């Protein structure tokens, strides 16, 4: 078994209050196919990469950068033009976070409050 992977990484699952809404947000941002069921949704790229969203009752969004409650994870997505990408994600329902610690990326909150970054490199 040496040199063989134990598992493959087809998806990441994100907790949220409304999987349908969050899948549609990320589907529009990434131009990925959206698939929705009763308590779960996913977005999938043509090449197979997938992000799933599951409904959690009593969901509490993370607070960044204080970590109370902690973000636990965030997505970095690569863009060609920060200004154009910022305008596009704001139009989709994201919120730009007031704390911006870098110059080659910008921090936003998705509609459920998860931090994500638009990055140029």
TrEMBL record:
PANTHER family per UniProt: CONSERVED PROTEIN (PTHR35908:SF1), HYPOTHETICAL FUSION PROTEIN (PTHR35908)
Glyoxalase-like domain segment(s): 11-119
Organism from which the protein derives: Micromonospora coerulea
SUPFAM superfamilies referenced in this protein's UniProt entry, alphabetically: Glyoxalase/Bleomycin resistance protein/Dihydroxybiphenyl dioxygenase (SSF54593)
Signal peptide: none
Pfam families, alphabetized: Glyoxalase_6
Protein name, UniProt field: VOC family protein
